Amino acid sequence: MNARTKFRQMMSAPGYVVAPGAYDTLTARMVQLAGFQAVYLTGGGYSRANGYPDIGLLTMTEVVQWISRTVDVVDIPVIADMDAGYGNAMNVVRSVREYEKTGVAAFHLEDQISPKKCGHYEGKLLVTAAEMAGKIKAAVDTRRDESLSIIARTDARAMEGLQAAIDRMHIYLEAGADIAFVEAPQSADELAQVGGSFKKPAMANIFEGGKTPAIAAAKLEAMGFKLGIYPSQTHRAAIFAVKEVLEVLRRDGDTEVMEHRLATFMDREEAVASKHWQALEKKYLKDAV
Question: Which one is catalytic: 83, 98, 155, 178?
Answer without folding.
Answer: 83
